[in-house]
Automatic annotation (TrEMBL):
Domain Peptidase M28: 66-283
Transmembrane segment boundaries: none
First-to-last residue of the parent protein present: 33 to 329 of 431
Name of the featured protein: Aminopeptidase S
Biological processes annotated in GO: proteolysis
Keyword annotations of the record: Aminopeptidase, Hydrolase, Metal-binding, Protease, Signal, Zinc
GO molecular function: aminopeptidase activity; metal ion binding; metalloexopeptidase activity
Family: Belongs to the peptidase M28 family. M28A subfamily.
């Protein structure tokens, strides 16, 4: 896959920061800040040639949206989905959580369209609403599909918090290599983890597993047995001494501004953002079989 220019990703993040500032300081479910965030991402995707749907739903008496974007072409009976939540908490602008994942997958989507390649598999991106209120948008989406439609989703990659300022390099533990927690993901999740792992091995950055603990939008996908994967740089938990040995940083929270007003443009590791954006591109190009890359095993 291509080397994603991190400056393009931070430009999307700056746009989301500006949107929060112009809309009461946040991008939470049911607010003008969330609506404007969806419109920003949709505008970029429409201009690039995606087929987009802004799908409204009601939760807690307020309107939220899922944004679904299909790249025309590819085998729709073998669909690769890539998603992250575009809503934030009400206490701040939500730049790492989850402007980061939203902006990274947006830039990968734009780069994919610009490549002019038609992947063998169909590629669909999603920006979920109301994740912060309990994975509401992604759950509505997966539950709203027919059994046949669900069976056509080969894999789901999730990106929620990929630029934590004191980053870890975590991969959803599809193979349960650490032997703990929630066990492996649905069959196929191990390969999705391996594809991301191959990227980080190639740049010499060690990774660790993180359990499918149900805290992000892969939840409803794995509930229906859809293979899932993704990266995560850590939230409120403290980086351990062993993790500092591995990755540098300090034995403080991965994201000290998690769900706070200080989750701003200053609350980012651009190194982690760059590595994760490149890893996402590698995974999409590999799993969807873009160009003459070797298909995954
Ligand atoms: N989904 C959590 C949030 O948005 C963050 C998180 C992501 C926690 C992934 C654990 C794993 O607040
Ligand atoms: Ca890069
Ligand atoms: Zn959050
Ligand atoms: Zn999040
Ligand atoms: Zn693993």
């Amino acid at each position: 896959g291509p080397d994603i220019a991190v400056g393009n990703v931070t430009a999307h993040l700056q746009a989301l920061s500006d949107i929060a500032a112009a809309n009461g300081g946040n991008r939470a479910h049911g607010t003008s800040g969330h609506n404007a965030s969806v419109d920003y991402v949709k505008g970029k995707l429409d201009a690039a040639g995606y087929t987009t749907q802004k799908v409204a739903f009601t939760y807690n008496g307020k309107t939220g949206y899922n944004l679904i974007a299909d790249l025309p072409g590819g085998d729709t009976t073998n669909t690769v989905m890539v998603g992250g939540h575009l809503d934030g908490v009400s206490s701040g602008p939500g730049i790492n959580d989850n402007g980061s994942g939203s902006a990274a997958i947006l830039e990968v989507a734009l780069r994919l369209a610009a490549s002019g390649e038609t992947p063998t598999k169909h590629v669909r991106f999603a920006w979920w609403g109301a994740e912060e209120l309990g994975l509401i948008g992604s759950t509505r989406y997966v539950q709203g599909l027919t059994t046949t439609q669900r069976s056509q989703i080969d894999s789901y990659y999730n990106f929620d918090m990929v630029a934590s300022p004191n980053p870890g390099y975590f991969l959803y533990d599809g193979d349960n290599s650490d032997g703990t927690g929630s066990g492996p993901g649905p069959t196929g999740s191990a390969q999705l983890e391996q594809v991301l792992g191959d990227y980080f091995t190639g740049i010499g950055v060690p990774t660790r597993g993180t359990d499918f603990d149900g805290r992000s939008d892969y939840g409803p996908f794995i509930q229906y047995g859809i293979p899932a994967g993704g990266t995560f740089t850590g939230a409120e938990s403290r980086k351990t001494a062993a993790q500092v040995q591995l990755w540098g940083g300090t034995t403080t929270a991965h994201d000290p501004c998690y769900h706070s007003s200080c989750d701003t443009m200053a609350n980012l590791s651009t190194t982690a953002l760059d590595r994760n954006a490149d890893a996402i591109a590698h995974a999409v190009w590999t799993v969807a079989q873009v160009g003459d890359v070797t298909p995954p095993p």
